Please model this.
Amino acid sequence: MTGAPASATGGSGATPVRGGKLGTAAVNQASLWNIANILTMIRLLLVPGFVMLLLADGGYDPAWRSVAWAAFAIAMITDLFDGHLARTYNLVTDFGKIADPIADKAIMGAALIALSWLGDLPWWITGVILFRELGITLMRFWVIRHAVIPASRGGKLKTLAQGTAVGMYVLALTGPLATLRFWVMMVAVVLTVVTGLDYVRQAVVARRKGLAAERVAAVEAVALALDPDADAAAIAPAAVAGGSGASALAGNAGDAAVPDVAPAAVAGSETLPQAVVGDPAEAER
Model:
């Protein structure tokens, strides 16, 4: 999962440094055509091929289902390796940041929809999982300005459970194994719902903290504009406690003109503190 910006030109390729941190220079030099992005592209290309294999010969031929399972397994394995390689060797790009979650949801969504269309998987299970995945994706955009929510242990277990359960449904299993796959899928559904609710909770808390940080920065900017000798450290607690410190400061200034710095401070989000928790490349999928 390549989760940091890259240069607009694609760069010339960073020197691999095993276990190194994602420094700005390394991020900007990461080439678009690196091994992590290639694995992500392979996963994207596997999606239509996987669907055709799964639905071949009416979708009930055990041989074709086995080949489809192999394609699905390769896609899941590349999902594990592309993120690890990107973080270990600083192969991070904007393309990877966007394409990786799309590839994850494309292969899983295609499998769920195809299995439900064949009648192997109840539609309500497909609906719950897809609703959660799409909803979390939209929420990530809602909160990304203020925070990056790291992947939790539950989120990783959810991904493993979903992949295992869907893989078992892709295979033409019968008897006890067919019963077992149902219960594995139930575990995946429970983890999907629980981790989704936990992500919503974390996102709301992180957004509130981010908005509070913006409010403090705006109040500090107004106060320092009115009184350059003011102590910023003393202003911040008042801003948090009062919530309307900027208005109070403006009122105390009498008829003095208050520079229009608060909106600028808020608009310039890149200068404001962001609640980044954990490694952005490990963001919850």
